[in-house]
Amino acid sequence: CVCVCVVQPPVADVRTQLMYQQMDPTFVGLIFAYFNRNAYQHGNKLLATCFQAVDTDSGPQHSLIPLRIISLPNPARHVLSSRADIFSTLIQEECSHQQASRVGQRDPLCATFGQHLLGQRLCSLHATVGQPLLRSFQERFRRGQEQVQRLEARIALLQATLGPDDTTDDGL
Predict the structure, then answer these.
(1) Which residues are paired to 55 by β-bridges?
(2) Claim: this prediction has a pTM higher than 0.90
(3) Residue 45 vs residues 34, 70, 148: alpha-carbon distances, Å
(4) Secondary structure (3-state) at 108
(5) How far is CA 164 from CA 152, 153, 157, 167, 169, in A?
(6) Cα distances (Å, whole numbers) of residue 96 to 23, 40, 52, 109, 112
(7) Adjacency order of strands within the sheet including 29-36
(8) Integer CA distances (angstroms), 41 to 4, 32, 97, 106, in order
(9) Which among 53, 65, 127, 162 could disulfide-bond with 18, CB atoms 3.0 to 4.6 Å apart, if both were Cys?
(10) How many CB atoms lie within 10 A of CB 122?
(11) Reported confidence tier of residue 57, pLDDT bands at 50, 70, 90
(12) Cα–Cα dist 2/121, whole Å
């Protein structure tokens, strides 16, 4: 007997999805489910469901959307640059909001208070997004350095195994 599991979005998620789609009709919901298989099956199973909400007479219902996963040549680089872009965008949005709120404002006390609030929001962004982002970059850099050291040690071991007579460079 083969059982195919389809992750159905809960009613609350469908309602929330419908709210988001009212703001942006292209918004989609994603649900990921991770299952541990038993020792005999070896491995795990990850299911993903992509859906949008449809408002019907009987209430919001989900409509499944085909999900295609595209393999990128270097996904790590894409993920890291996306993280940095998000942080940059959040800072730009805060500064734009501050500039928009100052239009027509002549009271220096209000302007100073607005600058103070901007500083608080930017500090909060730094603490919640910037610091974890920096830590992830540092960790990735550290792992890269460890990999370089392992490879250099392996090269040295191979060169020692080959001996001095076998390490000639033929330009190949």
Answers:
(1) 60
(2) no
(3) 6, 18, 33
(4) helix
(5) 17, 17, 12, 6, 11
(6) 21, 56, 31, 20, 16
(7) 29-36, 44-56, 59-64
(8) 15, 21, 53, 70
(9) 53
(10) 16
(11) very high
(12) 53
